[in-house]
Amino acid sequence: MENGAQRILTINSGSSSIKFSLYEISNTENLILSGKLDRIGLEGGLFQAGDSKGGLIADENLRLPDHIAALKRLFEWLVENQMGGAEISAIGHRVVHGGSKYNKTSLIDHEMMLALIKLIPFAPEHLPHEIKAIDAVSRVYPDCPQVACFDTAFHREMPRLAQSFPLTRELFDEGIIRYGFHGLSYEFIMNELEENIGVEASKGNIIVAHLGNGASMAAVKNGKAFDTTMGFTPTGGLMMSTRSGDLDPGAVIYLMKEKGMSADEINELLNKKSGLLGMSGISSDVRDLLEREKEDARAKEALDLFCYQARKFTGSFASALGGLNTLIFTAGIGENSPVIRERICAGLSFMGVSIDEKLNKENAPVISAENSPVTVRVMKTNEELMIARQTARLTKELP
Ligand code: AMP
Question: With CB atoms 3.0 to 4.6 Å apart as the test, which of 37, 85, 205, 247 could cross-link to 321 if both were Cys?
Fold first, then answer.
């Protein structure tokens, strides 16, 4: 390892899987490997890792009864392959929710663990697994610094109005507010703009559309978070692959009262069975729907609604910002689907958004037409690298 370099392990924990990556960070940022521990707690556990070029370097079928066992196997493997043990400088975790207390990447200590446990009701689908992973790491590597990188942190600078729901003041004070998510992706995009494209590009009024399985948009003014589509949970805002996005709250009350649905059933409906999957009845994947839309009206309608909502949010954020200089597409759909980008931008020329057909088809870094007042960009996001970068920065000076 290069002198002064830090070796950072990033961990992104889900209910039955853990994604990880190992970076070496000095003056340069090098990915060493990335992979996943899959089917934790289920039959057919899997551990796979690939090197920086994607070549498979670990491929094991094994029982992974819980997160501790899964992380133990990862750490053993890292040591067996001379990449683990004391060579790991710090471990960075993606943490979905930092509540109103945590507005930046922070070192994990006992106090934070207690705070995260208290926050579980805010993100019951994600936080328990993330807490388990942090706990598992501290058992195996008690002396290794651990860092929490919050998906909510980027948005904590939003103006109070953008954070507010018009419920009661008591509920606002309890933290029932718009937090926003995908913050690591937005931070990465803003960093890239500033450092690789130029400070000017990061100024002014920007809308970033993070369109992946989870989809959200963020309005950014002069580098600072201004508004976002997701709300108290990642279920809100734009419709997504399987999540509903915004609804009339009355519809939820109706489901409870008239359909007798429980909170768990509503949760399942809104997070797993709605969105593109629910509307189409076919698939949650945009690629499948694009393939089927000619012969199946349901596929077309689901895609039409997705693009319509993204266009509507673009207009609403542009007016909230008081104008628009840059529109950025990122994540799985945003980076790879010219058709979806074109449909979202269709009809936005009245507000200065027009794209060049050829550049758009090529997924070029800038896809706006030469005379378009708004610059439209396609940028690759990298949440793992953002975690590694922030973890390295925070732990560099630690003894
Ligand atoms: P992400 O959550 O950012 O990994 O995005 C995953 C989603 O991106 C998939 O479910 C697809 O819907 C979408 N996607 C990936 N590649 C393409 C593509 N070439 N065209 C359209 N959609 C794509």
Answer: 205
